[in-house]
């Protein structure tokens, strides 16, 4: 093993996915002559959209709001494939020149800040080599789940199954399920996506779920957007479409939160209209929780309902008793024959890619910090991160975080500052960072930063509120401490006191 020491840069971005490529654009816009470096663990641009390659992979969010504000999607197709999303991210990076600043196959393992020099030392693994890079700011665009493995619960007898057992996160390129009986275990967005796609080759697909999920149909192609584009042009139409879709998503979410009983009936009627009259809607598509207490699943053109109605797929709602070499037996005694089992059982959340964070020689556990404006950590200087919305397109928040960080850089340059650090208040009630009851979040949310009971320590889920807060309001507030070379030592001491307080 050898160690390579790199030159100092201004901003080190970790991750070259949807967030990282967008972050690079905003950093370069704020610092046209700045030195920028992007470290990416994988060997291609795309992040999530390079990792997931299972049949039918797509995003629940429409491309008009998932695309960057600075490079808006102008096609009338709203729901597109994962490969199309990855291609869009890569083309954006090439057009920006960001691709020339990315170092692939660099897995960041540790970031360490020195308050005396206001410098981050970033350690990464590049094949069998340790690479060390230094910079003024670190921008974590690592997402919030593990890229190494998904979540697979203990399933009795799964090891006895004679056929392939596949988790969507590690889908084999050579898996042949043509004419096979496929059982997909799970009911979340991945399962809802997989089932219709698998029916194109499989003899039959069963979605085996322990409990149901809310699902709503969503058009792949928006004819209205196309008509508007013909009248006013694709670029201007894209702006209107983006705001229209954000408004629809926001209204839907707010209605579900305020009038859950009514919205439950609306969703039920919409589902019933697409399924046979004798379909057991109560059992298979009516969750016990209220709409949007967990993330809503979208079915492009109602594809999941179509394959259920035509019989190429079916749903079993029950608990697994045991897996045998060629079938799955449920608690009620039903035997489901299977040649292939797909465990679409969720993600494994991981805070900041498992990167070790150290400030002035002290390890910083994310769960000991408060999230400031949903993009910084209390007591951790010159570090920004991106976590997107759970109730809207991820990029909407990612863009706002990038813009706000750019405004902070401009503010610091104007006032001669070289360091910022959010200062935790002496009294504030703690909350989970993400207010969502999805199982994959509940399992690991205690390892993430905490949110506070009041602004600016909350991770808001309202795009309109965040537009005001992050795009338009002043970057300086009582909770943020900016310092320059003259008072650097005082900032370091203040940080030490803070770390002791949260421990």
TrEMBL record:
Its cofactor is FAD. Keywords: FAD, Flavoprotein, Monooxygenase, Oxidoreductase. Residues 486-503 have a biased composition (Basic and acidic residues). Signal peptide: none annotated. Coiled coil: none annotated. GO terms for molecular function: flavin adenine dinucleotide binding; N,N-dimethylaniline monooxygenase activity; NADP binding. This is NAD(P)/FAD-dependent oxidoreductase. The lineage of its organism: Bacteria, Bacillati, Actinomycetota, Actinomycetes, Mycobacteriales.
């Amino acid at each position: 093993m050898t160690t390579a020491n790199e030159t100092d840069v201004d901003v080190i971005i970790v991750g070259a996915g949807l967030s990282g490529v967008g972050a690079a654009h905003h950093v370069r816009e704020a610092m046209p002559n700045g030195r920028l470096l992007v470290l990416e663990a994988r060997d291609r641009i795309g992040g999530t959209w390079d990792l997931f390659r299972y049949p039918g992979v797509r995003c629940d969010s429409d491309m008009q709001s998932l695309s960057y504000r600075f490079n808006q999607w102008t096609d009338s197709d709203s729901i597109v494939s994962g490969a199309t999303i990855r291609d869009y991210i890569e083309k954006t990076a090439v057009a920006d020149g960001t691709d020339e600043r990315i170092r692939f196959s660099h897995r960041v393992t540790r970031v360490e800040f020195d308050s005396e020099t206001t410098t981050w030392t970033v350690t990464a693994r590049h094949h069998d080599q340790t690479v060390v890079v230094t910079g003024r700011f670190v921008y974590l665009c690592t997402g919030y789940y593990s890229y190494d493995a998904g979540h697979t619960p203990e399933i009795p007898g799964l090891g006895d199954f004679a056929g392939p057992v596949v988790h969507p996160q590690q889908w084999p390129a050579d898996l042949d399920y043509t004419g096979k009986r496929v059982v997909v275990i799970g009911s979340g967005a991945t399962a809802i996506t997989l089932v219709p796609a698998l029916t194109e080759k499989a003899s039959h697909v069963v979605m085996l779920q322990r409990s149901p999920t809310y699902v709503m149909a969503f058009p792949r192609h928006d004819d209205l957007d196309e008509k508007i584009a013909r009248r006013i042009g694709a670029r201007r139409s894209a702006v209107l479409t983006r705001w229209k879709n954000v408004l629809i998503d926001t209204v839907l979410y707010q209605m579900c939160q305020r009038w859950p009983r009514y919205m439950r009936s609306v969703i039920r009627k919409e589902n019933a209209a697409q399924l046979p009259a004798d379909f057991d809607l109560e059992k298979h598509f009516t969750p016990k929780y209220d709409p949007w207490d967990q993330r809503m699943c979208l079915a492009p053109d109602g594809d999941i309902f179509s394959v259920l109605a035509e019989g190429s797929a079916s749903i079993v709602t029950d608990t697994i008793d045991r897996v045998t070499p060629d079938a799955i037996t449920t608690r009620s005694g039903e035997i489901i024959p299977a040649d292939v089992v797909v465990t679409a059982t969720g993600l494994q959340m991981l805070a900041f890619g498992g990167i070790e964070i150290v400030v002035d020689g002290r390890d910083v556990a994310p769960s000991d910090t408060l999230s400031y404006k949903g993009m910084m950590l209390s007591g951790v200087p010159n570090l920004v991160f991106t976590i997107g919305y759970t109730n809207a397109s991820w990029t909407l928040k990612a863009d706002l975080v990038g813009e706000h960080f750019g405004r902070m850089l401009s503010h610091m340059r104007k006032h001669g500052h070289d360091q910022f650090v959010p200062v935790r208040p002496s009294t504030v009630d703690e909350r989970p960072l993400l207010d969502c009851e999805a199982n994959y979040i509940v399992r690991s949310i205690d390892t993430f930063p905490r949110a506070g009971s009041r602004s600016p320590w909350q991770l808001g889920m309202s795009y309109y509120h965040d537009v005001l807060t992050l795009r338009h309001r002043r970057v300086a507030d009582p909770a943020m401490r900016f310092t320059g070379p003259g008072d650097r030592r005082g900032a370091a001491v203040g940080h030490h006191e803070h770390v002791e307080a949260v421990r």
